[in-house]
Amino acid sequence: MTKESMMTSMTTLTALSRRSILRGALLGGALAAFPFGLLPKGKAASLPDSFGVGRQQWLEHLLGKDLNTSDPSITSQLASIGSAARSAMNTYVTSASRTGLWSDLSLAARATNADSARVTTTARRLRSIALAWAAGALGPDADRGLATVADGLAWLSRDVFSTGGVRYGNWYDWDVSAPQALNDALVLTFGAIPASTRTALLDAERHFTPVIPQTGTTAAAANRVLFCDSFCGRGLLGENADELTAARDGLAPVLTYAQPYGGPVGLVDGNKDEAAFFSNDGFYPDGSFIQHGQFPYIGGYGASYLTSITAIAARTSGMSWCPDLGIVHGWIHSSFEPWLWRGLVMDTVRGRQLATVAGDQGTGLSFINGMLDLLPSASDAERSRLKSLIKAELPWRGTQPTAGLGLPETALALEILGDPTVVARSPLNGTWVFGPMDRVLHRRDDWAVAFAMNSLRMADYENGSNENLRGWYTSDAATFLYTGDLDQFDDAYWCTVNAYRIPGTTVDTVARDATATPWRAEYHNPSLMAGGLSAQTWGVATIDLTAKAPSTLHGRFSRFFFDDCYVCAGAGISVSSGRSAETIVENRRVTATSSGPLTIEGSVPLALGESKTVDNAGWAHIGGVAGYVMLGRPTVLALHEQRSGRLSDISGTITGTTASTVHTGDYVVLALQHGPRATDASYAYIVAPGLDAAATAQLAAKLSVRLLGNTPGVQAVRHEPAGRLGAAFYEAGTASVITVDAACVIAVEETDSSITVRASDPTQSLSRIRAELRIHADTVIESDPRVSWAPGADSCTLTFDVSGLTGSTVSARLAWQPPSAADLAAALGRLIGRDIPGSVGAQLQKTAGHFIGVFNSGDFAAARTELHTFQTTLDDWVSTQARPTAGVLALVDLASRLVTRTLNNRS
Fold first, then answer.
1. Number of Cβ atoms within 10 Å of the Cβ of 478
2. Which residues pair with 620 in a beta bridge?
3. Domain 731-816 falls in which CATH fold?
4. What topology does CATH give the domain 430-707?
5. Residue 663 annotated among the catalytic residues of the structure
6. pTM for the whole thing?
7. Which residue range or ranges hold the Polysaccharide lyase family 8 central domain (predicted)?
8. Residue in 714, 77, 51 with CA at minimum distance from that of residue 369
9. Active site includes 352?
């Protein structure tokens, strides 16, 4: 069919008003007079089950209703929609011998995933033209647009997407993505194209997907919702109540929490036991979301889940076919919101989508779009909370915050942004532990850290469909710092960054292959020790890691998250003979925000192309990012390099100029060098986001944190001013005043009146944790029901029931008498002449006396100075001792614990 004949055949149809065509055709007969708009969406079923009403609500979900076309944001969206449609129309192929509807989307090859992906892309282009036509965005090109859609849909229904069609490549294209796009195109042009085309395409959908799957990955979590989305659409278009009922009932298993089979998925052969493998998929009470059995995926499949579930609800609102989204509103705040950072979604929960065109900001936009679509089904209280969240996130999207949203979502967003009664939600602060999916997140007002792990529960990384081919180390203790630099991990970061140097990781520098792993055969770190502890606004995370072959690396790594900084520690680092290991402190792309001057202890900034190795490095600084203080003065490699790459380097599914375009990026790198044949290497460093170089130097000179342990058995850090101690135990052991009987994570927080102890089981395999505290505690102020307390004369024992908690935290707060200044002098007196020589002891006694005097006088500033002098003198002497005694180490710890009392200004 030529363009001229297409135009002639469609003239009579397109001469009518689009709105009158759509409204009359969608509703049919007497229903055209139904007063839509009178029933708030999301209410209990009170409309008759009507296909026409559903189609009208669907249309409003896509196009909006009563849009203010004088608003520049609306006109901009319409112009963008029209421009995309015209671009597609101008390259549309009409020749009789065509093998596809666009020259770059030939459908002649019919075998691979890339081949089936072109079917989806073809359907989506037709949808984009249909959307522009129905929205009135094509102006004088409207007739040509409608004719193009009619011709394209008819061609597909006669050839590749037909009842005689044979599926090839990826099931997702035939069952989900192509049907979704085709259904939208059909409702957008309902009544304006021949009914026979619609019937043929719906018959083809039933041919390819006769039922909603009940087992395997296609039946799990977001995939099930996507199937239900397609069934809902074809049920309304084909007026099939059974399909609509199937769509609603099919959602029941995914509108609840996941029910895992009861063991680590790494022990399950997913090809032999699909039920157990995919039982992990879905949402969890702690906010975790898993897809494909073994991957954190709220930023990928979770976004698809949200898009489709809200679309189903919008189409069927007020009718018996509408699902109850009450539980979804809860998931917004437990699962989606924490990972939404200033309008983007953190990469560590985006799976293999790191290697796609859609970046972290694109995923953030889909989150916000879904939240806007949830507003009609929300209670008054939840609607208010959602609006507050949306108003906090949208402004970070720049001068056109609504760009890219759908038309109705744009209208809602503009209303929220312009409503002075809607107050933007304050920045989230706290530490979240997502136990089932091996992720820990720490957020402050101006920065956040995402910590990614893998274990027998979660695989290392997903590269299915030949995507994310260099994701080798993205969950090997990867530590991603998010700041005001919203472009850092977007805009070709993942195809230009050195994939061997992911921030936070310790790697064996052996070469890796950029090849896809068979589905369900991904690598699992054999340890269960991967998780953390949340102490509300601070926390701890840890992993016992054996890296994937050919790497021979093993190590134990912890992160300690505080209000003003975080501490990274590693111990027991080993690689085989002939191999080298290094720890990547930072690998930062230079952007307009992260200006990137990299200095080591105030040295001249590294020039592009320069690298140097610095021995005994104390601190470093990266402009616009953070200050870095190295504990133990290690050897540091610093470099400033320019790197290039293509998306095709990390994805085999992206084609054309998008895949072949060369991207470049400048990077500054800090890496600790452990040298060849490391057998028991360790490291520790502080990251202070937002600190300038001068303040970093001051922090290095007077540390606010103390490393109490960094061995293969225990890693422990105290933030002295805050009186907070975090400890990761890899076996039974002791740190400061606490001794535990099993591998676990402990947090202790001391104040003048109470001591709070928290515990978690990162292995998710224990029934209880027993912790002895060498303190005198008077009473239990408050505790979780799972904690029991046994007091003693000079110690007490807490037993934490952690069975079935999937790594969540339990806590107890006890009343006590904290250590006093006099306790320091008494402890010192017992050690002089026995564990501490007299000359050193005399100097320490003098300083301790000064400390007691000014502390008791209430001069806390002077007390802080004297205590710092005491600590420095003691530390200097201890550093000369090969094996300090237990008593000396207890004295060091006691002095550390007293710091917070000088800051509390209480005697």
1. 21
2. 600, 628
3. Chondroitinase Ac; Chain A, domain 3 (2.60.220)
4. Beta-galactosidase; Chain A, domain 5 (2.70.98)
5. no
6. 0.94
7. 433-691
8. 77
9. yes
